[in-house]
Amino acid sequence: MNEFFILMKQELAVTAIIFLLLFIKIGKGIQHSSLLSLVQFLLLINFGAGFFFNQSGWLFGDMYQTTPLIVFQKNILSLGVYLISLLCADWLKKTEHLPEFFMLMLSALLGMFLMISSGNLLIFYLALELATIPVAAMANFDLHKKRSSEGAMKMILSSAFSSGILLFGISLIYGITGTLSFALIPGQLDGSTLQLLAFVFLLSAFAFKLSIVPFHLWTADVYEGSPIAVTSFLSVISKGAIAFIFITILYKVFQPMGEVWYNMLVILAVITMVIGNLFAIRQQNIKRFLAFSSIAQVGFILVGMSSGSEVGITAVVYFVLIYVFSNLAAFGVAAVITEQSGKENIDDYKGLYKTNPFLCWILALALFSLAGIPPTAGFFGKLFLITAGATKASFIFITIAALNMIVSLYYYLRVIRAAFMDKNENPISAIKLSPSVKLGLIICGAGIVLVGLLSWMYDYIHSLSL
Amino acid sequence: MNLLLLIGLPLLTAVAVLLSRNKQQVKWIALFGSVAQLALAFVLFFIYKHERETGNAAQMLFEQNYPLFKSLNINFHLGVDGISIAMILLTAFVVVAGVLVSWNIEKMTKEFYFLLILLGMGAYGFFISLDLFILFFFLEISVIPKYLLIGIWGSGKKEYSANKLALMLMGGSALILVGILGLYFAAGRSFDIMELSKATVSLPYQQVLFPLLFVGFGVFTALFPLHTWVPDGHSSAPTAGSMFLAGISMKLGGYGCLRVATYLLPEGAKEYANIIIILSAIAILYGAFATMMQKDLKYINAYSSVSHVGFSLLGIGMLTQTAITGALMQMVSHGLMTALFFAVIGMIYDRTHTRMVDEMGGLMKKLPFISTIFFIVGLCSLGLPGLSGFVAEMTIFMGSWENADAFHRIATIAAAMSIVVTAVYILRAIGNTVMGPIKNESYLSLKDAAWNERLAAIILVVGILAIGIAPGWLNDLLRPAAEEIMNRIAGK
Q1: pLDDT grade for A298, boundaries at 50, 70 and 90
Q2: In chain B, residues 65-94 whose CB comes closer than 8 Å to chain A
Q3: Fewest Cβ atoms closer than 10 Å to its Cβ: which of A84, B149, B301, B376?
Q4: CB contact under 8 A, A455 and B137
Q5: What residues of chain B lie within 8 A of the CB of A399, using their CB?
Q6: ipTM above 0.85, yes or no
Q7: Do A417 and B68 count as a contact with CB atoms less than 8 A apart?
Q8: A416 Cβ contact list (under 8 Å, min separation 6)
Q9: Pairwise CA distance, residues B404 & B408, whole Å
Q10: Between chains, do A399 and B148 touch, taking CB under 8 Å as contact?
Q11: What is the DSSP string of A286-315?
Q12: Which chain A positions have a beta carbon within 8 Å of B174's beta carbon?
């Protein structure tokens, strides 16, 4: 019993918060600002809980497992949710259904926790659904906006479709191997055609969720339509969680088919980076822009994943940690500006530096980090992904990855140029930041600078992933 | 001596600049910090000399090695040899002069100085790194400051130039990245230069990696035909920005070509030496002729930089000890000279508000100090004996002549002929600007250099004269290090 509490402490904490919110909703209800502070506080406790009593173990037979690495991955996600609750505080306070919003978001988080911890394809599928369906409801949260409903509809349809594909893949695997356990499947795999087919189905489901090209078409519309809090949740937290479980399934379950998925990942990584980058160049809306840039970032994650060793796991986890800080900082700035001025286009950012230098520096840090320019952490993250990808010594592959960094720098510079250099008659007026937004941005900024320079962080993750 | 000081001091200065309250404080802190850096560079130089004279024959001195990313075998490995010392001195000179000439900058002073100091820090870090990973880190760290310096404080088509520069340099970095990763895996997972210099990298690998690294670093140092960012970038940048770009940043590339590409991949260097020679001979001649066509003073200096930097690449391509020593001398000499050149152009532009040669004339009558400095730097550029340019170019030619076959001879002669062209454009530019009658009435009320400009110019002139009149100390500094590189190439 005791073990149950220790191993599932993060899931239990999130569940407790969900129930608390439920009681508040059913009861009298309290003021939104105090509710928000309460939830933020609880999320912080949840994040802190991840640092204590960490041990590995199995629960429910082989259904649920946890290791220090998994706890760390969950903690990254917790941190991300906490940051979103800080950064989007202005919007959250105004929204009518604050308790519901958090209930949905935390349910999705719970689903992700279970997903990362799953040791069986069945619980993996259940958890994945739990992580997806609430997000579709969240995407519809701007109730008066048509685009928001459209985005939610697109998302729920494409997720349902990809879930169907996933289930088909899982059923094929069950038919071939007679088991759904992660531990037992690899022994049964020998690379026959049917197994290949099953793997392709699984891979395409993951590609849908990670918006890997050519399964990315839902991404931009959903991102643009949703409120920024949801967009940032989708593009950072969901992506991170899926990347974590994807790498586990590839490395553990499909380990005997290493050659097959290496080649597939290389191809997918190249087209994802290239297409994501090329489309990002043309975007005007900042949310669409970040959507396409996040597609390109996923391409980079695939580069690291292709390594097939613990170097790959380390690089991916490390990169996601940095990605949480960088992308949330960019989304945070966009959220503040959209909330205050209603403007979402890159051209509206012209002359921003005159009026809002602090926001501009955070934006610049975030974008340089996404582009992989030192001294920001993104430099280290990208470099280690490429290093991991280079272990198989495919020069052309890493050259393409490195050249893609130039393209991405080009479009990130577009935003920086608008904010810092271009002149504007009436730029966005000076914005007074609320304390929680300011705190969120400062945490992100500090994370962007420190995660890279404090090099023990990487070694720590490496020691976890051995 | 603890080399971390060289990174710590600029960092401290930058932070102090950020924390300061008003413009006056910003400027004085920046000046104080940069003078302290210069003092530190001199202390380092003298301690280094003392160590060598007392018989310390280690290849690198003051080595420090801290593990950074243990699991990837990345270390924070620092150390200096003669080449690094010379480059550090050059950087310190240019930083002080750059801070001084920007004294009157009004727009966002704090940010300007912060970025300037940061740019200097990147260069110091680059020259003392002995680990390819942190070397790359310090190389890349200058991208943000360069981009913002040009884009915000620049003139003309500054956004275009800033973008072009950032993207081209990023392209160079991408090649370098692939190159160093290739080295890392080819030589048993190490980024350490000292370890890599002992490792044997198989010939096919060298043939692939050398061009990647050489071209990658070559972009930074205007290797023909990848020099196109130079004219735009230099002419759009603010004065101090141009000084840093041409004086320091281009030297990062040259240093990398030598220390990383040539030193670590000697077989590749031999393989491709002829191509390097051809490209740099083209750069020298093309740069010189292109300069003839320019009317804008900044473009004149930018294109002549392409030509002058070509000499140092030529020296590297010749693969003789003298030529490499000369190449390094040329880097130092060109750094000082071109920084001074841009400083003088900035001073003239601040007064006349034009950079067009045709519109000026007779500046000597009203601006004797600035015009004299302009004279000196022009003469240095065309290689007058007694100034640094002559010493460096002469050494390169002597070293080149040691290769006794027709190909090398022809390349050397072709390169040497460019000096005639240089003389033409320099003398014409100087003649039209400072000599003759005053063309514009408004020039009669111009005031000569202020104290800060005088100080900046004098500091750089002292450097140029110190090399030009007594080149022995620089030669002593560089020759042993060049010998080390030659030993590796000769396979000893």
Answers
A1: very high
A2: 68-72, 74
A3: B376
A4: no
A5: 174, 178
A6: yes
A7: no
A8: A363, A364, A367, A368, B147
A9: 7
A10: no
A11: HHHHHHHHHHHHHHHHHHHHTT-SHHHHHH
A12: 399, 402-403, 405-406
Q: Left, alpha or beta for A275 (phi > 0: left; psi -120 to 50: alpha)?
A: alpha
Query: For residue B114, which phi and psi values (nearest 5 degrees)?
Result: -60, -50
> Could you count the other beta carbons within 10 Å of the beta carbon of residue B484?
19
- Three-point CA angle A185, A186, A191, nearest 5°: 110
Q: What are phi and psi of B21, to 5 degrees?
A: -90, -45
Provide the H-helix boundaries in A27-143.
32-49, 68-87, 89-94, 98-117, 121-139
CB pair distance less than 8 Å for A402 and B178:
yes
| Helix, strand, coil share (%) of chain A residues, nearest 5 | 80, 0, 20
Q: Which residues pair with B74 in a beta bridge?
A: B69
Residue A326 pLDDT > 90: yes
Which portions of chain B are predicted below pLDDT 70? 492
Query: Beta-carbon neighbour count of residue A27 at 10 Å?
Result: 8
3-state helix, strand, coil in chain B (%, to 5): 80, 5, 20
List chain B residues with CB under 8 Å of A459: 69-71
Q: Strand ranges (DSSP E) for B22-161?
A: 61-69, 74-80
The 3-state DSSP class for residue B295 equals coil
Domain segments of chain B: what residues?
A: 4-490
Structure token pair of residue A404: 């893609």
Q: What is the mean pLDDT of residues A386-396?
A: 82
Q: Residue B266 is which amino acid?
A: P
Q: Give, for B37, the enclosing helix (H) or strand (E).
A: helix B23-53
CA distance B301 to B288: 10
Nearest CA in chain B to A405: B174
| Shortest Cα distance, chain B CAs vs residue A448, angstroms | 14
For residue A458, list chain B residues with Cβ-Cβ distance below 8 A.
69, 71-72
- CB burial of B52-84 (b: ≥16 within 10 Å; e: otherwise) equals beeeeeeebbbeeeeebbebbbbbbbbbbbbbb
Chain A residues inside the 8 Å CB shell of B208:
395
Placement of tokens 């890599």 in the chain: B196
SS (H, E, C) B224-292: CCCCCHHHHHHHHCCHHHHHHHHHHHHHHHHHHHHHHHHHHCHHHHHHHHHHHHHHHHHHHHHHHHHHH
What span, in angstroms and rounded, lies between the C-alpha atoms of B47 and B54? 11
Chain B residues with CB under 8 Å of A409 CB are 166-167, 170
Give dist(CA B361, CA B438) in Å, integer. Answer: 5
Q: What is the pLDDT of residues A34-87, one digit of tens each?
A: 878 888 888 888 888 778 777 787 888 888 888 888 888 999 999 999 999 888
Give CA–CA dist B425/B294, Å, rounded: 9
Of B340, B324, B323, whose CA–CA distance to B387 is shortest?
A: B340
- Nearest chain B residue to A372, by CA: B140
Q: Residues A203-216: what's their mean pLDDT?
A: 88
Angle, nearest 10°, between helix axes A435-453 and A377-389?
A: 50
Residue of B nearest to A377 (CA): B137
Å from A123 to nearest chain B CA? 34
pLDDT grade for A366, boundaries at 50, 70 and 90: very high
pLDDT tens across A126-161, in order? 999 999 889 888 888 877 788 888 888 888 888 888
Note whether B98 and B243 are within 8 A (CB). yes
Say if the Cβ atoms of B72 and A387 lie within 8 Å.
Answer: yes
Beta-carbon count within 10 A of A23 CB: 9
Confidence (pLDDT) at A1: 62
For the residues A5-18, what does the mean pLDDT come to? 84
Please give the pLDDT value at position B492. 62
